Amino acid sequence: MTPTNLFRNRPVAVIGAGVMGIGIVQVALLAGHPVHLYDVREGAAAAAAEQLGATLARLADKGKLTPEDVAAARGRLSVAASLDALRDAALVIEAIVENLAVKQALMRDLEAIVAHDCVLASNTSSLSITAVARGLELPGRVVGMHFFNPVPLMRLVEVVSGLATEPAVADAIAMLAADWGKTAVHTKSTPGFIVNRIARPFYAETLALLQEQAATPAVLDACVRGAGFRMGPCELMDLIGHDTNFAVTQSVYEANFYDKRYQPSLVQREMVDGGLLGRKSGRGFYRYPDGAAKTADGEAAAPTLPAVPLVLHGEGPVADLLASRLAGSGLGFTREAAGEGGGIRLRIGDGWLLCTDGRCATECANTLGVHDVALFDWPVGPAAAGAATPVVPLAWTVAAQASDDFAAQVAEVLRALGWLPQRMADVPGLVVARTIAMLVNEASDAVEQGVCDVAGADAAMTLGVNYPAGPFAWLAQVGAAATVRLLDALDAFYRGERYRVSPRLRRATWTAPSAPAATAWQAPAASAARSASKEPTASTAPPAER
Ligand code: NAI
């Protein structure tokens, strides 16, 4: 007998007729289960059943269901007047208010009603499954079944095991979720489970950059979309609602004993306090109904190619990308080996354009002993496409010591290479690099701590929040060495807990030091740059503040 047989065609009870409950009912009905729907609020379950009937009829109108499917599904749904009516259920899924005491009381009530082999699942998005099961006679049958909104469309289900959850129960729920057309990912009952935990830096890095006044929301969003994300962090927070997004961040922060890595943002709290909640209040980072600017401020003009010698140093994917875009741009250039210290660098006249390694440009200039230094963000996703179309935004910055002429040349070169250059303040790790490195870091810690496995983390982030790639797919592309180097540089710059490197990630830099990707994203060491530069060294020429 496979675990799925535990539930096939057997009655499922859903408690809570809100947005999640009704979505779960729809999925269970269409999978062939008789479904009971109960809600403590008088008339709520009946109204939700009515609404679901209309939804199914619309699906039939669109040809996605037959009228017979709809009639059969409606015939399998019953509105329960009390919990007693759920006694024949093989599985109860609660989707009631997110309150531990209320969920615990419901579980206790259910234990007195349902059969001993009935599985009790909770759709909680933030509470501990261990705590939900506490005090029950049979806590081993309590499991998290965390759906994503909208339930009929989102493919991910996190199957959450508390300390007492029997593995066979978690396996049976995972197989049921697969039967329902979902991808189940196992996770331990830890704050935020997988998705809500690993996704925190996606918002946090942009909020930190906004606090530092590094760029506008439109620029940050454009750069992140340039890496393949469907929405930038600011427009996504506006969509989710800042109150909801802030509450999740705060709950993960508190549940981690106020670990500074998860510290909420003052920028966002101010918005919540001011009622700038996003789309639902008409204003967040953007004003609605117009919404987010789809392209950042006009830097798309035809480039005027600079008449300066261009020399590309270095090897690996980023150097190859630069070479292919240089070749396609019509800019004349020569290519030389990486030389001492390795790293990717494009010499523009006497200045350097480097791929970020987590230091700010001013520090790079100071260390290299070169005034004219600029940095560009990690080209990831569409920004890493060899061809220059479609033109995508790429963040860049210059050192405080750099001349205005050099900054203008860099912008022209980036434009000629087919990017929409988005100039930011001289912050370390720009925006895409620090965001992706932090997502990788968080995922590495989740795996290190047994919250999920590598495949589970990638599946959860691509299916649960539609990321263009999973964190470990990015890690394979960028390499552990470049990721750790970037995080260590951010840690050294900001000196806090936020950029603490995951032990799993740091170990990876020692176990695979010669992987080609490990050096592909590096900026040059000081000696390599100096040997090829006419500029004075840092020791003889302190940076001139501008
Ligand atoms: P909702 O507020 O839309 O619906 C909750 C329903 O539960 C209401 O109809 C309410 O009357 C009913 N209810 C409250 N206490 C009850 C009780 N003791 N017995 C029976 N019914 C009761 O809430 P929503 O958004 O559907 O969330 C439900 C659960 O799903 C929460 O645990 C939430 O954290 C979780 N969740 C929500 C997601 C979302 O995007 N809204 C995503 C994933 C999980």
Notes on the structure:
The chain has helices at 19-30, 44-61, 67-76, 100-111, 129-133, 167-179, 195-198, 200-211, 217-226, 233-240, 242-255, 266-273, 317-329, 361-368, 404-416, 432-448, 454-464, 471-478, 480-494, 503-511, 516-520, 526-531, and strands spanning 12-15, 35-38, 77-79, 91-94, 119-122, 142-147, 156-161, 183-188, 310-313, 334-336, 345-348, 351-355, 373-376, 392-398, 419-423. With 546 residues, the protein is α/β, with parallel strands linked by helices. The strands form two sheets. An eight-stranded mixed β-sheet has the order 3-2-1-4-5-6-7-8, sandwiched between helices. A seven-stranded mixed β-sheet has the order 10-9-11-12-13-14-15, sandwiched between helices. Helix 8 packs antiparallel against helix 16 and helix 19 crosses helix 20 (503-511). The chain is elongated, with a radius of gyration of 27 Å.
End-to-end Cα distance, whole Å, is 74 Å
- What number is the mean pLDDT? 90
Given as residue ranges, the uncertain stretches (5+ residues, pLDDT < 50) are 515-519, 523-546
Nearest-angstrom radius of gyration?
27 Å
- Largest sheet, if any? 8 strands, mixed
Note the beta-strand portion: 5-15%
Instruction: Give the oligomeric state.
Output: single chain
Shape: elongated
Number of separate helices:
22
Could you say which small molecules are bound to this protein?
1,4-dihydronicotinamide adenine dinucleotide
Total number of strands: 15
- Helix percentage: 40-55%
Structural class: alpha/beta
Biggest sheet, spatial arrangement of strands: 3-2-1-4-5-6-7-8
Offer a few descriptive terms.
15 strands, binds 1,4-dihydronicotinamide adenine dinucleotide, 7-stranded mixed beta sheet, about 550 residues, disordered C terminus
